[in-house]
């Protein structure tokens, strides 16, 4: 056995409460190293050979180096002391907090009266510590709207020099097309028809730019888009159609024209807002900035979220839109650069206003530190984005590598966070899916089909479903094409059907996921999604060649037409 | 290279803020596998071959399987993107969030506009997230007092049937000897003379038992010990002598006679306190208990720290003793079974009352989940207890294993937590050190000497310094011997001199610690403690044979008499 490969950390993504009575226990080993792995456990105050239980563990995830074993346990007194047992041929190795031991489990301890000495512990499953993301997200299908570009429903709000909304309009970094909230209200039935259950809006608060990430007033809809009353109307109309609404906000930095920052620019050290930012010295200078900023962008001064007055203001923002306007979630821009205490208080504020609100952080890298149940429900799932695109769209990695990347992610977080992860394939920050696929619609469909049959909440970027294309910003931000003869109806029907399939079968939303085939140097995969109702076996070929796939090991399955159910 | 052995987790004990400008970055490799390890880093918004820095890493800890590399970095914009570079002979392997790559660092990412795709990240060092335990603890020498057994200063408070305070008195689980707070006040000069800077009291709140862990009133000194005014006098008198005071409290469970529990026993589901506990069903029964309890002990009902009213009461307890009575710290009994949210709010309450208060959790196992700066400053360092005893007292493990166990602990937590770890060798819960050593005073001294020259805050259990012995509870709880002719004055002087040495040389308190010699099958070790002032090279032999130790690799050292400084 390769002991160096074995990894476990108590009270982490390797040992956590899944619900108020269930613990998930995991351990990593070298791939293919073990014949059997088990968790040996009992109550810490009554731990002996007579009282302990041995629960077999199963391979839950795999990559090129490792197997990740998983078991579910329900300790009757909510206390849990445990060790691992590894078997390879005739060799048996135990692993607990003391370390590894062959043949017999070792314990340690000087006068440890109570402690089952040397065991790993999950000391007590306190319900309040259980990470409980909102259930509705598991069933949700999101649709991302960039408000300036979805629909112009009220031309009276058009900003000066608004350009014509045509199918061949060319967005620039600074131009405007007049999209607004009324435009969204006008097309809610379109979204309902597609099967959407939640809109994710990029910011619509008052700001200078067309993307509105440079906030001027966090408590006010940008006048180009409408009013706060219009936002409330939008939320109410959406809710009537079974569609929820998530807003995007930037608490990491403000816009240059945020009045408190303007006050600091004018009044320097005398400004009452001087501690709302990270000013290194006075007088303030903007080029280069002598304050912390988003990236090196002087027009986006970083907010000092430690400051109590600023924090109070921002938490009121968090509360207002949830409680008074009725939104169902927050997507948090540059969430990883804001302090953790702010997010803990943010979560408390938001969940007090609506316990079912969804809190989604924009984080591009490993996000474990935010997903313990005290900060975010989930993060933007960019690693899944990249994996799907590299396998299905670019055909750059093989099936084994695709599995490894997804499975590493599966093991990287508690399952709750994965179940409500936000799975996108493109956005206002990336080229559009069809463009990444070089116009290859078949590959685009493969990617979308995988996303819509994988766990986590899928999101569709506005217009993808009707075949819009576009490169990186600004190309991906074209006005939505509403001229029916310029929309790809076949593609729309494809999305609509997959969404319907997903919504009709909880197994596709939140059933277990397991790869059945993901071989080295192969371009096809097979996987299953299972719950108590259904078992889906899904086979997808990303290579340009026909693939023969041996289904004998996949278990029994009756092939049915998912549309007719026959 | 053994890739399976390499481990890193961003934003964990492997990557954390040490202070407001410094990050500690660590990575694990197979022991002896690498010739060189470096961290390659830069600003995430300006990450390119021209702007990155390569910082060599050093072996910071070792055990039988692994080397643990460590580096300190100061990112100028407080943002940090990084990868690792491993060198073995001519082979170079890079490791970042994408995985391992040979020869050239790989990156990934679809349209990742900003993110230095594929790098690990510490996104922003926000000052408020830095774990800052109180500085004074690094210099402290603690002394643990079991109030019923330290000194009887006011016989008028003696409980009925108080037994005689003699050197051969035999404690039982239920008897009383009349120790009280006046007794402690009377002997503060004794503690000052020994060199003590902080007293750790096991509980002195009103309770039924002699150990007082079964609290009846958290806001009141037990009448057997005195009054709250007497406690304030004790704290003030101690402070005058430069001695701080830490109290012990049990927030996990109450005593049976805690009035709210009595109310629940009497009034059942009608009690206003019914949700202060974890009652599974009404009517309440105590044998066996149909409520969660400490262990299986019906007389210690577990408190429901999620309940807002109970929580408010307990947080007021936390505030009162710190703010109104002036104590300097809390030692928290069975801290691992209480919910994490309670501890976060507890910390906020205590640090608001006194930012320099020390928060110490009683946890016997891996405590990482509590040591992120949001809950405890440190934990009772039982793994160090066991390691010192196994090596120096029982002579059961070899030097390499001793090093491995200490070094695993060193890498298990952020350095801040290690610097203020609470290092004890015995307590009211274990046999006394001299008894563990089978009366072998030389071994006892070795253990004490190591503890007093190691990092973390050392604690002496009352009476150890004068040669008291005793087995497990109740034997270890004998009344303190005050008859001078029955005290071991030589041992007292030994403790006194070591404490003075430690206090005079910050290198022994908080200098870097490194093993210079810790070989397989050997019974001796050498280590150094270094700061900008001093470098100590300390050699200790735990075997029964004379040891020859080769000092040629230890660097230059001038041997001086630590007492005379010559």
Describe this protein's structure.
The structure is a homodimer of 566-residue chains. With 566 residues, chain A is α/β, with parallel strands linked by helices. In chain A, 24% of the residues lie in helices and 22% in strands. Chain A has helices at 136-139, 181-186, 188-194, 228-240, 259-267, 308-323, 340-353, 382-393, 399-412, 415-419, 433-436, 441-453, 489-504, 506-510, and strands spanning 15-17, 23-30, 36-42, 53-56, 58-62, 66-73, 80-88, 91-96, 99-102, 120-122, 142-145, 198-201, 205-207, 215-221, 244-249, 293-294, 297-301, 329-332, 358-361, 378-379, 422-423, 457-461, 512-517, 524-530, 535-541. In chain A, helix 12 packs parallel to helix 13 (489-504). The two termini of chain A are 49 Å apart.
DSSP strand content of chain A: 15-25%
- Main β-sheet description of chain A: 8 strands, parallel
Averaged pLDDT of chain A: 94
Name the strands of the widest sheet of chain A in spatial order: 20-19-18-15-12-11-22-21
Number of strands of chain A: 25
The coarse overall form of chain A would be globular
Assembly category: homodimer
Write the layout of secondary structure elements.
The structure is a homodimer of 566-residue chains.
Chain A: E1 15-17, E2 23-30, E3 36-42, E4 53-56, E5 58-62, E6 66-73, E7 80-88, E8 91-96, E9 99-102, E10 120-122, H1 136-139, E11 142-145, H2 181-186, H3 188-194, E12 198-201, E13 205-207, E14 215-221, H4 228-240, E15 244-249, H5 259-267, E16 293-294, E17 297-301, H6 308-323, E18 329-332, H7 340-353, E19 358-361, E20 378-379, H8 382-393, H9 399-412, H10 415-419, E21 422-423, H11 433-436, H12 441-453, E22 457-461, H13 489-504, H14 506-510, E23 512-517, E24 524-530, E25 535-541
Parallel strand pairs in A: 11-12, 11-22, 12-15, 15-18, 18-19, 19-20, 21-22
Antiparallel strand pairs in A: 1-2, 2-6, 3-4, 3-7, 5-6, 7-8, 7-10, 8-9, 13-14, 16-17, 23-24, 24-25
Helix pairs in contact in A: 6-7, 8-9, 8-12, 12-13
């Amino acid at each position: 056995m390769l002991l160096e490969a074995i990894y476990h950390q108590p009270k982490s993504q390797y040992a956590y409460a899944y619900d108020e009575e269930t613990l998930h226990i995991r351990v990593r080993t070298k791939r293919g190293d073990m014949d059997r792995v088990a968790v040996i456990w009992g109550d810490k105050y009554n731990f002996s050979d007579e009282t302990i239980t041995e629960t077999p563990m199963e391979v839950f995830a795999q990559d090129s180096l490792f197997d990740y074993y998983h078991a579910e346990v329900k300790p009757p007194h909510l206390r849990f002391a445990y060790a691992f047992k590894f078997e390879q041929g005739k060799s048996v190795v135990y692993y607990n907090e003391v370390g590894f031991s062959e043949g017999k489990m070792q314990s340690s301890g000087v006068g440890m009266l109570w402690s089952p000495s040397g065991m790993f512990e999950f000391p007590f499953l306190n319900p309040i510590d259980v990470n409980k993301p909102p259930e509705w997200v598991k069933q949700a299908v999101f649709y991302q709207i960039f408000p300036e570009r979805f629909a112009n429903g009220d031309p009276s709000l058009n900003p000066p020099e608004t350009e014509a909304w045509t199918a061949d309009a060319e967005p620039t970094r600074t131009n405007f097309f007049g999209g607004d909230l009324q435009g969204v209200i006008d097309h809610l039935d379109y979204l309902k028809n597609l099967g959407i259950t939640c809109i994710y809006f990029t910011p619509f608060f008052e700001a200078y730019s067309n993307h509105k990430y440079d906030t001027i007033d966090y408590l006010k809809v940008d006048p180009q888009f409408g009013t706060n009353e219009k936002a409330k109307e939008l939320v109410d109309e959406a809710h009537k159609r079974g569609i929820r609404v998530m807003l995007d906000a930037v608490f990491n930095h403000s816009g240059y024209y945020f009045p408190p920052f303007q006050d600091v620019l004018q009044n320097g050290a005398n400004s009452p807002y001087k501690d709302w930012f990270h000013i290194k010295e006075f007088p303030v200078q903007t080029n280069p900035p002598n304050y912390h900023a988003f990236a090196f962008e002087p027009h986006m001064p970083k907010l000092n979220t430690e400051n109590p007055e600023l924090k109070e203001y921002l938490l009121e923002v968090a509360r207002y839109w949830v409680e008074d306007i009725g939104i169902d979630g927050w997507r948090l821009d540059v969430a990883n650069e804001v302090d953790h205490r702010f997010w803990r208080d943010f979560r408390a504020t938001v969940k007090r206003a609506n316990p079912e609100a969804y809190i989604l952080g924009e984080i591009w890298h490993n996000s474990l530190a935010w997903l313990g149940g005290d900060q975010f429900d989930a993060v933007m799932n960019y690693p899944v984005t990249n994996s799907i695109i590299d396998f299905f769209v670019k055909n750059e990695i093989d099936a084994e590598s695709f599995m490894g990347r997804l499975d590493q992610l599966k093991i990287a977080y508690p399952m709750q966070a994965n179940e409500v992860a936000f799975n996108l394939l493109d956005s206002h920050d990336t080229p559009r899916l069809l463009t990444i696929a070089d116009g290859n619609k078949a590959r685009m469909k493969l990617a979308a089909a995988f996303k819509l049959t994988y766990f986590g909440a899928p999101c569709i970027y506005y217009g993808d479903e009707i075949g819009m294309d576009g490169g990186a910003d600004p190309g991906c931000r074209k006005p939505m094409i509403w001229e029916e003869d310029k929309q790809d109806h076949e593609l729309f029907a494809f999305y609509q059907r997959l969404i319907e399939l997903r919504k009709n079968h909880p197994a596709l939303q939140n059933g277990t996921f397991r790869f059945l085939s993901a071989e080295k140097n192969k371009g096809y995969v097979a996987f299953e999604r299972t719950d108590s109702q259904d078992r889906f076996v899904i086979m997808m070929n990303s290579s340009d060649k026909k693939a023969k796939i041996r289904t004998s090991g996949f278990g029994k399955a009756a092939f049915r037409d998912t549309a007719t159910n026959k």
